[in-house]
Amino acid sequence: MTERSGQAGDATGGPVPTTPVCFRHPDRETYVRCTRCNRPICPECMRDASVGHQCPECVEEGRRSVRPARTAFGGGAAGREGYVTKALIALNVLVMLLSILSAGSGNALAGGGLGGLMGSSTPLTEWGAVLGLARFPDGSIGGVADGEWYRLVTAMFLHYGVLHLLLNMWALWVLGRTLEAVLGPMRFLALYLLAGLGGNVAAYVFTEPNRFTAGASTAVFGLFAAVFVIMRRLGRDTSAIVPILVINLIFTFTVPSISVAGHLGGLVAGAVMALVLAYAPRSRRTAFQVAGGALVLVAMIGLSLVRSAALLG
Fold it and tell me: Which fold would CATH assign to domain 77-312?
């Protein structure tokens, strides 16, 4: 019963209008109506609206009909909080601590190369870094070609020394928050992982099979390329990112012990994935982005299989 209807007679027989009552609380009289459904509502049921008040049912129905906010590339608005970027940094720091503990000494902090920047290896880096195929001192053989495919993933979370970690995490903090905000959490995570994997695959394919390579810089270089692609797609100025990218490329080619193949591979993989994310047709954006990412992954697997066959042949 939404309101009392009808008319009652007074002492002279004339009609007397009744007072409307709240449709949710029939014992409460009210003259206020929901601006959406026009039903009477009492003060307890009133919900502020842009114009007037609405009842709880109409407010809930309106929430269900409102589409969640999306970014220009189809991602969720939660990316503005940078949760994935923070989680990736925390994971890298945790793995660094485990690496130091695995060494059983301070060697991971005081390793050689650029005054300790690159650091020395630890049992954990030897276990998880990219390695094509090599014989260890105990006579065992290991490497990606020997079936240790996990190295192509774990290597992007391992670092040679604290300074190596800090440089990569600073770059991830600066680039990651920007990209996660415009892409959304899941698309940014896919970009990061595929860029890191692409750099590690390139290191596996183009580096000496007995050389260890590790670091988040494969993924970070992919983020550099992605920022350039995304900003161009949005019509924003990219003049600030170009000098930073050039400086990092100069370091890549001039500083000893840096994996040139890993950095360039991450750069290419990040650029390709960013193009997929940025230029997917709006009408079927998600399907196009997923398919594009899958093709990039399949290409990486194919290159790895070819390299393994060459090393084992």
Answer: Rhomboid-like fold (1.20.1540)
* pLDDT, one tens digit for every residue, the chain (313 residues): 444 444 444 555 555 557 788 888 888 888 888 888 889 889 888 888 777 788 888 888 877 765 656 666 666 666 678 899 999 999 999 999 888 888 765 444 444 433 333 467 888 999 999 999 998 888 788 999 999 999 999 999 999 888 889 999 999 999 999 899 899 999 999 999 999 999 999 999 999 999 999 999 999 999 999 999 998 988 888 888 888 888 888 888 888 888 999 999 999 999 999 999 999 898 888 999 999 999 999 999 999 999 999 999 8
User: At 141, which helix (H) or strand (E)?
Assistant: strand 141-142
40 - beta bridge partners?
Answer: 33
Rg (CA), the chain: 30
DSSP 19: P
Domain boundaries in the chain? 7-65, 77-312
Helices (H), 145-240: 151-154, 162-183, 185-206, 217-233
Q: Rounded to the nearest 10 degrees, what angle do helices 185-206 and 83-103 cross at?
A: 40
| 99, 120, 121, 217: the active-site residue | 217
Please provide the DSSP assignment of 46-78 as one string: -EE-SSSEE-HHHHHHHHHHSPPPB-TTS-BGG
CA quadruple 250, 256, 258, 263: dihedral sign: positive
Q: Are 75 and 187 in contact (CB under 8 A)?
A: yes
**Alpha-carbon distance 243 to 240, whole Å?**
6
Question: Whose CA is closest to 78, among 66, 68, 87?
Answer: 68
217 is catalytic: yes
Q: Out of 121, 263, 304, 308, pick the active-site residue.
A: 263
Please give the Cα distance from 147 to 144 (Å, whole number). Answer: 5
